[in-house]
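Example record

The entry below shows one chain as it appears in the dataset: sequence first, then structure tokens.
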Amino acid sequence: MTAPIVEAPPASRAQPEQAAETPGHGASRWQRSGLAASLLLSAGLQLIRLDRQGVGNPYYAAAVRSMLENFHAFFFASFDAAGWVSVDKPPLGLWAQALGARLLGFGPWGLLLPQALATIVSVALVALLVRHAFGPATGLLAAFALALTPVAVAVGRTNEVDAMLTLFVLLGAWALLYGIDRGQGRWVLLAAECLGLAFNVKMLEAYLVVPAFALAWLCCARASWRGRLVHLAGAAVVLFVVSFAWAAGGELTPPDRRPYVGSSSHNSVFELIVGYNGLDRLLPPGWTLGGLLPHAAGADRPNPALALAAFGAIETGARGPQRLFNPLLGGQTSWLLPLALLGLALAAADLRKMSDTIRRRRQAAALCLWGGWLATGFAFFSVASEFHRYYLVVLAPPIAALSGIGLALLWQDYRRPGWRGWLLPGAIVVTAALAVWLLLPFPNFLRWLGPAIGLLALVGAGSLAIDRARRRDANGRFGAAWLLGAATTVSLAAILLGPAVWSAHALVQPVNNILPAAGPDFGILPPGRRPPGAPSGPPPGSAMDGFGQPGSMDRADPALLAFLAAHRGSERFPLATANALTAAPVIIATGWPVAALGGFIGQDPIVSNDRLAELVRDGQMRYFLMPDVAQLEDLARRLNGEASGAGREGLGSFLTFLISDNARWVAAHCAPVPPAEWRSPEQTGNPLAALSVLYDCGSANISNDAVASRGAKDPALSR
């Protein structure tokens, strides 16, 4: 992006630059007031009515509930207290939630507050990092941009760990830029340590910023080329050690002394890293880890990553460089993306004519960091096969930082003579046009928000253009100060109104806990106005209506809990389910060790049917809440609008993954419990319970000869 900084004489390299400024030092009253305002705005968007979100995603909420029961479950991030299966993420983000639950109680505030606070702190960090290189006003613009980034608001209000991932990456960015500014190599080691901690929040997604970090240090560090390479080599070692310390501990623990690694095909943490949370996200569904490494995942075993293809383009749209501008993703983080790209270009151009070496170094390092971060993220999300919209929160900091830089530079150019002074009105019009484009699939919002943005943009940009055209002299003086101030205010309103409304929507309607995203749900759109591939929603009144809304997936049926409490004996597991989605409400309500036989969606090869029969005979399991195969297949057909056969796209395809071989075995060998004994007359809990049957295997006559061989998995994977 930029040529390496010309070095000072060797004798001065070891000394910090005298003008180096500690972030926050010497801030004036208006700067502190502006930063406080941005933090208050972020706090309001994150904390107001936060308890309406319930406990968030029940899958992770249940894991935290189990982690509070014993240290074994806590260390391994076990979904259940007995250590049957772990969740599909490393534990650091969940440890923060467990700490919050321990301090504030297991509930909305205990589980969700850590992510909300992480988002607020991230706003402060972006303000300080941008301020250090480009000045206080630029830092405040970046802070407000991040505070109003819709996807950051949505993710911060749930128990998804992405907000914590972003915080650790920004802490690493602070250490990196501080080390470049001070000329001390140990800071890049601290930056690597922060990225290693981020890896232990969400694995390989943390590495999207590694090229940007390396580029900034390589181009801008105050050391010889050899010294820079040595520093980066040491950072790589630190990054590797910190990243894989927990994973190595899990891998070295005998499988019978730890939970099965959820969402892996071979009970391997490293397979989870490279496969389900790695290549399976990037490559097309036909090129999953199993396809690339056939020796690691045989065709006779289900690959949990195939379930990712159930959503595909529904959430993200078609792959390509235009993806981040489509209506599915654009409303989450792309409102200010044109400003960010323009800011990057303008700042890079200004570096060439900058004579102040201290300032030049700082800005070059910042541009390498923010620009490289945006470039790698943009490239990944343009080509990745399977990801969720809320993953885009990792792009929020660089877009916010660069858009703040862009606005500040555009304003400076506007106040000076030259052709670049006309870029500001043009940028306002382009940004407003993008906002209207993103609103097109939302007729209810387009009806009032689109004209408001357009009117503000025309008034603001037009006033700025008129003011500049009436320049009084060549020294940069313009028309009346009140006109200039009003035009600037109106222009900022035009730029920020779209993301502000999308962000504030979370205060009006709770964010979806399963697939969090800001703004209105696509399900409210009429046919013909939905973006290509957008979900049409479940059939009205069906059991899956409202899927993922707070309270729809985390409330256990009280009749089921009463039945289990009355009939529970000496079984190790008072209940076993086909998947974690069905088990989560019971764990949340009671903390009981409920075994999710097949992990998250029921396709983890944890236990063979032969081993399942042994567990029943030994009295470790008796009651099974399993899917009603006929109902699920029928609902899948309805969701996909097909006359026959299970659907292969969207939520319908996802439902077909809930039908496991274990579920078929239980249905064939155990007796159904009459629904009147365990199910409430009106469905008040997890909608999947309405699609389930409770089986009692206590009186089943199960022998080795009676075990169904269909679908039996590799005995080596038995529990």
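Notes for this example: The chain has 30 helices and five strands. The chain has two domains: 27-397, 558-717.
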